[in-house]
Amino acid sequence: MWNVTAIALSAELDLAVVISEVEDDHYDHDQGWAMTTYFTVRPLRFRDGTPHPCAKIATVRFSTTSASISHVTQAQVLGDYLLLWIGPDSREDIGADTLVYLIAWKQGSITLVNINDHLSCICGGKGDDDSY
To answer: What is the per-residue pLDDT across 121-131, written as a single tens digit (0 to 9) for each?
Structure first.
């Protein structure tokens, strides 16, 4: 079952980007049991929820095996781009990868910008987090 995990809004661009995911556990002959997380990114019009007319691709799809089993997905609209952060949901999940993607939502292209196992959350918080 697909779950909405993040929404990023820009009223100026009449844009609501909806990020959904579904997880799949499977057996890999080389690695044993593995989990793949499949993501969809849908740029929609903020005012009525229809596909955004500036988006050449209505749904951007990608998957990762690097996200931890319990993770947090956060997103922020930066003009023609969407910054997507996928990281562990707790400090106890030390060693889990943090993934940062830059998605050109109008073009439908996606770039993995960073994989880092010690990158703290770039969004939210009280601003007093000094972990790196």
So the answer is: 444 444 444 44
Range of the domain at 57: 3-116
Is the pTM higher than 0.90?
no
Question: Is 128 within the bounds of a domain?
Answer: no
Does residue 122 fall inside a structural domain?
A: no
Domain assignment present for residue 92? The answer is yes
On whether the CB atoms of residues 98 and 74 are closer than 8 A, the answer is no
Per-residue pLDDT of 18-38, as tens digits, reads 999 998 887 777 777 777 889
SS3 80: coil
58: number of Cβ within 10 Å? 13
- Cβ atoms < 10 Å from Cβ of 18: 17
Euclidean distance between CA atoms 51 and 41, whole angstroms: 11
